[in-house]
Amino acid sequence: MTNLPNSFTSEQDSKISEALSKIENVFRPYLLKKPIDPVLSEELRNLLSDFLQKDKASRQKAGKMNVTILISDIRGFTSLVEEIPSDVVISLLNQYFATMCSIVNRHHGIIDKFMGDSIMVVFDTPETGKKDVLNALICASEMQIAMDDLNTHFKQFDFPELYMGIGINTGMVMAGMIGSEFYWEYTVIGDAVNLASRIEAYSLRGQVLISQKTYDLTRQYIKVGNGVEVYVKGKREPVVLYELKRIEHPSRIDLPRRELRRSPRVNINLPFDFQCIKGK
């Protein structure tokens, strides 16, 4: 099974530049021999890049593949958005995404999509083989560590601190083109993806929670907390989750500890009915 499209090779990038030169030569007589405007050139480049990516994806057949899915989400971000200006929100997200994407790329992960402030990453590359699962855990650990540097930077500009929860699961997924003529993308779907999302929802700030399958494949390389049974949507039986504490191989990485009581509080008004029972 071929992998999810990620980025273009130098050869593909060269072809884009060559195509732009040909387009400029065609239109040059109509532009009084003036070069194409840089903004227009960039727009054409983006169109060609999008075309090549869709062409590449369209040639990839749908099928099943075994992957490790990492899903991250900023804790309390919705409430923060209501309190800070929109331009600050965009700046925070862009700096956050830039840092996280760099880490993901370094560990051979493939960014499947952004969902608001969430990131979904798939690990399945021929270069790493069976190390994919461990790469996902190392990646998650470094993402959590990077939040300290980000928050130190944000503090200089009086930006609020951000904290992230991460859920990881390993399993079989369906990969293929999903969408319509108006919008489509090559992505993965299935129960393994759904479970990764449920696991992420249970994670607290600074936590990396992993499934039983992910733990079984990496137990000799990591240290985790005690397994906890939880009920998740779509599962009749409880699933066991483990909190990742430390990577022990190939090098030691300790996950930073977070003081949970300092996490953002969300004000709610939740009505409920009750009855007082006496003599029971």
Detailed description of the structure:
It is a single chain. By secondary structure, the chain is α+β, with helices and mostly antiparallel strands. 39% of the residues lie in helices and 24% in strands. The chain has 7 helices and 10 strands. It has helices spanning 10-27, 38-58, 77-81, 86-106, 132-156, 191-202, 212-218; strands spanning 63-74, 110-115, 118-123, 164-179, 184-189, 208-211, 222-224, 228-230, 239-247, 253-254. Strands 1, 2, 3, 4, 5, 6, 7, 8, 9 and 10 form a 10-stranded mixed beta sheet that branches. It is globular. 26% of the residues are buried.
What is the terminal-to-terminal distance?
63 Å
Helix content: 25-40%
Helices, by number, come to 7
Number of strands: 10
What is the mean pLDDT?
Answer: 80
N-to-C order of helices and strands: HHEHHEEHEEHEHEEEE
Low-confidence stretches: 1-8
Q: What is the approximate shape?
A: globular
How much of the sequence lies in strands comes to 15-25%
**What structural class results from the helix and strand content?**
alpha+beta
Gyration radius over CA: 23 Å
Largest sheet: 10 strands, mixed
